[in-house]
Amino acid sequence: MDVLVVPPLADFTTVVAPPPGMALLDLNEHLVRRLADPARLRAAADRRPGGPLTALIGRAAAAILARGAYDDAHVRAVGAALGLAADPAVRLAVDGLELTEGSEESSRDLLGAARRCELFAPEIELAREVTRGRRAHIVIDRADQLPAAFALVAALGEGMTLCGRHVAEHRAALRRIPELAGVRWDAWSPEHLIRPPWCETARADTRATSPDEWALQADGGETVSWGRGDVGAASPDGWVLRAGGGEVIGSGRGGVEPVRWVVGERSVPGGGGPWAGRLDVARAAALPGEALARCRGLTLMLTRVDFLGVATGLTGGAADLRRLRAALPPGVPMTGELAVGAPGVSAEAAEESMELLAGGLAGVRPAGVRPYRMGVRAPWTAGEVLMRPPRAGHDLARWAEFDAPGGMSPDEVAILLRRWVERLPGLPAGRLAACSVAGPAAPGPPGAAWDPCTEVVAGAGPDGRGPGTFAVNLRSGRSIRLHHLLVAPVSRLAADPHALDHLAEPARRRLTAELAAAGVLR
Questions:
Q1: CB count, 10 Å around CB of 479?
Q2: Positive or negative, the Cα torsion across 218, 224, 226, 232?
Q3: What integer best gives the mean pLDDT of the chain?
Q4: What's the CA gap between 457 and 459, in Å, rounded?
Q5: Which of 281, 280, 304, 278 is nearest to 375 (CA)?
Q6: What does 387-427 look like in DSSP terms, one character per residue?
Q7: Model confidence band, residue 446 (pLDDT cutoffs 50, 70, 90)
C-alpha cells in the first residue's frame, strides 16, 4: 500500500484525507504531539535557553495543554511549545517557520537548512521505517514544509512522488533543483479536514437535539468530548477519521460530519457538506449562495475596509462585507486578517481599516495583522504597480517587491503593525483552520475577566528576586510575581470572579490593575 506522507509544518488543526487504498503518515501531527507533550515541556523548562521567563512560559504551556481543551488557550500553548523548540537551522511559530540563515525563497538556503536541521530527526526516522518497501507520496501544501520535505527526499531516496498545492503552484521552479532530479511529480492535492475536536469545540453551544450519542477521541485514544446531539449536517451512516498512526481521532453516529478546509485557490467542495476557509475577500464574495450556506467559518484576507463595509482583497478586488455576512448562516464566525502596505493604501486608510475591524464592522472580528506581500502569481490589478524582478538566488520566489504611488513606506508599515500588536496582543493566527471556525469568546460572569491563556506556575523569577509563584499569560507573553498570600485567591479567579472580594479596596484595586497590565485579566 502506498503511503501519503505529510511533512512538518502543516496546519496542526487539520488532517489530510488520503484517497482509498493509501495509508496516511502525518509527520506534522507526530511533531506537534512530541513538542507539545506536557511532560516534555515541564522536564525541559529549566534547560531551555532564554532565561527564567522562557521557563515560566514553558510551564504555563504545559499546564494549559494538560487540560485537554481544544480552545484558544490550547492554540497559544502549542505555539509556545513550538517556539521554545531550539534548532540550529529553523525557528518555529504556531503558524509558520523561519530559517535562521537565508531566505525561504532560495532553494540553496532551504537545502542547507534541511541538512542542518535536527528538530525533525525523529519524524524522518519514522518515515524511513513506515515507507520501507512502499511508495511514498510527499504532500507539500505550504512553503513552510519545504525544509522537512527536502530532508525526506534525501533520507528516503529516489522514486518518491511530490504532490500538493505548493507543488502544483511552483512545480516548474522545483523541477530545476538538482537534488530533486530523482523524484516524480503530481499536481494532485488531497483534501484537508478540520480535526473534529476543534470543530466540535466551536459549535458546542449550537447543537441541535438528537437522541444519538457521539464521541470525539484524541490522538492517544482518550475521549476529549462526548454528548448527545448533532455537531454537523446529517450523516446517518456515521464516519470514522483516523490520524497518521491509524488511531481514531473522531467517530460518531447521527450527525457528525467532517468539515473540509479550503485555502488559497482550492475549490470549495461541491455536492453538499460543510466547509470552512481562509480566502481573499473578493473570491469569498463571488462564491454562489449554495456554497456560502454550507460555510462553517470564514477568514477573509483584506488590505482595506471602509466605513460602508466595502473591503479590498490582496489583488485589489472589492467586496461588500455586509452582503457577504448576510449570505452566511446565522452565527457562522467571520474574521478578517489585515495585510498592511498594499499599493495605494495610505497609513490613514490602514489605520481606519484596523479600527473598523477592531470595532466589529459588519460582524467581522480581527484575525491578525501582517505586512502585505504581493504574490508573484497573483499581483495587484487595481492600479499602477511596477513589479521588480526577484532577488538574485531567489529561484523559489513567491513574493514580488514593487513600487506604487500613494502607499506606505516600510517604516510606516512597521510602526503601524507594532502599535496594533501592542494594542491587541495575541490576535488569533488567521492561517489556522481552528481559528476560522472558533466563535467569539463566551462572556464570563460579571467581575474580573480571567484570561484562559493564563496559568499560575512556580519557578525562578525573571525579575531577579529568586524563585516564586507567577501568573503567566501566553497571549501577552508577560508574567507577574504573586505574593504568597495571594496565590490561592488569584488562582481561584479563573472560576470565581469574586475571589479577590475579601481584600481591602485599595489592595484589590492595585492588584487588579497589575493583573490587567500583565494580560492576566481581560
A1: 25
A2: negative
A3: 86
A4: 7
A5: 280
A6: EPPPPTT-TT--EE-EE-TT---HHHHHHHHHHHHHHSTT-
A7: low
